[in-house]
Structure to design on (319 residues):
C-alpha cells in the first residue's frame, strides 16, 4: 500500500515512549533485543542444519556498489593493491625473499551489507538504554559500539519473502509493508516468528537493481519497506534483529514530512533493535521456495570495531 496519511512528530514521540525498552535488561546493557537470542535458542537453531546448504547474504564490497554520495556522504568501497604479481615478476620484492600480493580496503561502515550498531541513531540527546549521545565522540562510541555484539549475531533465521507472497519480482517503490502483510506472509509460508529470531525481509528491490545493471536511486531514494506500524509487531514478537534487502529497511518516501527515517528513531535508540541493511536475499529466497522451508541457522558476526556505529558483514544462512 502507498502511504496517504502522514505521521505526525507527536505520534513518533508517543511510539518511542510506548516501545522504549531502556533498563529492560539492566542499566548496563549494550546489546538490546539480541538478549532474546539466548544460548538455548542458539542450540535449537543449530538443529535446523540438515543439508549443509549455505547462502551468502552480502553484496560485493567494491566500487560498483550502490552509494552515490548523497547527503550522508557515503562512497562505495575502494579496493587497492599494495603489492602485486607484477612487483614479484620484476624483482621489486626480491629483497624480501618472498613473493606476495597485498592490498587494502577503504569504505564507510554503512557502504554495503552491514549491521547498524545501537549507537548509530540518537533519539533527542540519547542513544540506546538512555546513554547520552555525547558518549559517541570523534574517538568512537564509548557505549553501544558494534564490538559489544560481536558474539551475539547467531540463531534462528526466518525469511519473510514479501515479494513472492505478493506474486511480484519486486515490490513497488513506496510500498509500505504492514503488520497484516507480515502475518499473512508467515502464514502462507507455514512459519511462525518467535522470540529471539533473526528476521529477514525480502522486498526484491536489491535483486531487481542487480538484474537491471544499475542502482538508480537505491541508496537513499524511494523504496519498499517496513511501515512505521511494524515497530509494534516486532516488539510484540520479541525479534532479536531485523534486516532487509533495501538501503534503509523502512519504506521510502517516509510516512512523515516531520522526521527523516522515523522507524529508525524508535527501533534503534528506543527498542534496542539491531538492524541490518542491503542483505542479498535472492538465492536464499529461491532455496526456501524450493524446499518450502523458510527457517534456517543464521550467523552474521560483525567485525569487532571498537566504538563502531556499525560493521560490514557477510551473513550466512545454513539449511
Amino acid at each position: 500500500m502507498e502511504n496517504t496519511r502522514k505521521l505526525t512528530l507527536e505520534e513518533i514521540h508517543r511510539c518511542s515512549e510506548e516501545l522504549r525498552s531502556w533498563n529492560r535488561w539492566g542499566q548496563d546493557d549494550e546489546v538490546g533485543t539480541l538478549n532474546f537470542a539466548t544460548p538455548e535458542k542458539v542450540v535449537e537453531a543449530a538443529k535446523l542444519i540438515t543439508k549443509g546448504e549455505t547462502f551468502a547474504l552480502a553484496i560485493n564490497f567494491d566500487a560498483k556498489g550502490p552509494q552515490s554520495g548523497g547527503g550522508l556522504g557515503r562512497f562505495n568501497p575502494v579496493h587497492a593493491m599494495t603489492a602485486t604479481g607484477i612487483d614479484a615478476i620484476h624483482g621489486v620484492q626480491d629483497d624480501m625473499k618472498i613473493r606476495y600480493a597485498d592490498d587494502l580496503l577503504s569504505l564507510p561502515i554503512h557502504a554495503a551489507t552491514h549491521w547498524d550498531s545501537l549507537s548509530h541513531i540518537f533519539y533527542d540527546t540519547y542513544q540506546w538504554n538512555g546513554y547520552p549521545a555525547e558518549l559517541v565522540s570523534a574517538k568512537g562510541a564509548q557505549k553501544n559500539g558494534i564490538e559489544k555484539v560481536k558474539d551475539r549475531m547467531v540463531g534462528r533465521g526466518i525469511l519473510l519473502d514479501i515479494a513472492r507472497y505478493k506474486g511480484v519480482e519486486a515490490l513497488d517503490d513506496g510500498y509500505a509493508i504492514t503488520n497484516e502483510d507480515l502475518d499473512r506472509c508467515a502464514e502462507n509460508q507455514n512459519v511462525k516468528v518467535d522470540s529471539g529470531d533473526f528476521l529477514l525481509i525480502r522486498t526484491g528491490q536489491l535483486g531487481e537493481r542487480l538484474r537491471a545493471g544499475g542502482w538508480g536511486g537505491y541508496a537513499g531514494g524511494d523504496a519498499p519497506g517496513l511501515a512505521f506500524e511494524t515497530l509494534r509487531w516486532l516488539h510484540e514478537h520479541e525479534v532479536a534483529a531485523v534486516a532487509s534487502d533495501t538501503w534503509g529497511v523502512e519504506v521510502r518516501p517516509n510516512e512523515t514530512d516531520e522526521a527523516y527515517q522515523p522507524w529508525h528513531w524508535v527501533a534503534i535508540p528506543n527498542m534496542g533493535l539491531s538492524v541490518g541493511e542491503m542483505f542479498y536475499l535472492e538465492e536464499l529466497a529461491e532455496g526456501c521456495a524450493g524446499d518450502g522451508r523458510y527457517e534456517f541457522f543464521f550467523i552474521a558476526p560483525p567485525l569487532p570495531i571498537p566504538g563502531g556505529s556499525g560493521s560490514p558483514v557477510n551473513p550466512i544462512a545454513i539449511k
Q: What stands out?
A: The longest helix spans residues 9-18. The CA atoms of residues 118 and 227 lie 21 Å apart. The chain has nine helices and 15 strands.
